[in-house]
Amino acid sequence: MKKHSLETEFHSTSPLSRRDTKKVQFYMNLASDVFSDLLRSKIIPSHPAQRFEVSLLICGDKKIRKLNLEFRNKDKATDVLSFPSQENLRKNPLSEDTIFLGDLAISIPTARRQAKEFNISVWDEFIHLYFHGLFHLMGYDHDVSAAEEKLMQKWEDQALELLSAKKKGSRKAPL
Fold first, then answer.
1. What residues pair up with 83 in beta bridges, in sequence order?
2. Closest-CA residue to 109 (of 143, 71, 66, 60)
3. Pair type for strands 51-59 and 5-12
4. Cys-Cys link to 125, which of 92, 115, 144, 152 (CB 3.0-4.6 A)?
């Protein structure tokens, strides 16, 4: 069976320590494995592409607020923004070998606040936001209907379950 890959190139406008950078890299590697599993198990519609790419901006509230205002006309900070490069990959799969899914922006300060509120680690919240944004890039939108929201939540939960299992099995987890 074919193995799909998800490559995430990330940049940060928020200061990340060396340890935080290693955490991001660790989670992006796990996310690639989870994404491949999701495609193979048909939780997300299968695509002929072997490689998927995402660009991720890790930023602060000021930057994400500016992006939210510029692209969504909402003058407030948010946790994650998704900018798909394709209209809707669910309904219109492409036949290319490599597909650029689009851009994500995640606010680390907002992720930290939400992690505290949910009593989880900032990195668990970060990866939840990453998958939430990734599903938007694939064409899912929880604002469309209650059924769509439920479906998206189901796949986010499945992704996080798979990630948790892979994280426990990994010996290379950074502190």
1. 103
2. 60
3. parallel
4. 115
**Cβ proximity of 127 and 106 under 8 Å:** no
For the chain, the average pLDDT equals 87
Inter-residue contact 46 to 101 (CB < 8 Å): no
Counted residue by residue, the chain has a size of 175
User: What CATH code would you report for 5-163?
Assistant: 3.40.390.30
Q: What is the pTM of this model?
A: 0.90
Amino acid at 140: Y
92 with 107: CB under 8 angstroms? no
Judge whether residue 57 has pLDDT over 80. Answer: yes
As given in the structure block, the two tokens for residue 134 are: 């990734």
Count CB atoms within 10 A of the CB of residue 37.
18
- Residue 175's SS3 state is coil
6-10, 65-69, 115-119: range with lowest mean pLDDT: 6-10
Q: Predicted confidence band at 98 (pLDDT cuts at 50, 70, 90)?
A: confident
Structure tokens at 119: 């009593």
Q: Which of 52, 35, 53, 54 is nearest to 103 (CA)?
A: 54
How far apart, in whole angstroms, are the C-alpha atoms of residue 34 and residue 3? Answer: 11
* Per-domain boundaries in the chain: 5-163
Compute the distance between CA of residue 23 and CA of residue 123 in angstroms, rounded to an integer: 8
